[in-house]
Amino acid sequence: MTHLKEGDKAPAFSGVDQNGNPVSLDDFKGKKLILYFYPKDSTPGCTKEACNLRDNYELLKEKGFEILGVSPDSAKRHQNFINKHKLPFPLLVDEDLETIKAYGVWGEKKFMGRKFMGVLRTTFVIDENGTIEKVITKVKVGNHAQQILKELGM
Known about the structure:
Blueprint: E1 14-17, E2 22-24, E3 32-37, H1 44-55, H2 57-62, E4 65-71, H3 75-85, E5 91-93, H4 98-102, E6 106-111, E7 114-119, E8 122-126, E9 132-136, H5 144-151
């Protein structure tokens, strides 16, 4: 479970996206950012979540949001995921888990009675000044864009 809460300064991060382009929190200064962490490209829940954000991308852009997804997948896996589902937003490569751990979303998970370490699906809405406006830990993958807007009272 993340240690970060609403009102905290968002941890700085830097890395590369699916194309090898540098991406950092500083790139989003003056913009609202939906920073969403998910376990793995091309899995059912992660695909539903990404496609819901894709389908509502224009609405979220109209509301002033940028979107950045983060998972431990490689640039190649991210590129395949983006191409297959026509995602209009970048995905940050975090194979070393640096950003994932900075945001406190690496932890113990359970699946079919088995315990393992992995990414805890979490979304952070970060305001124009780099402050966390909202933390969503119970993500509704098939309705995530609507969930974000509702939690922000939009």
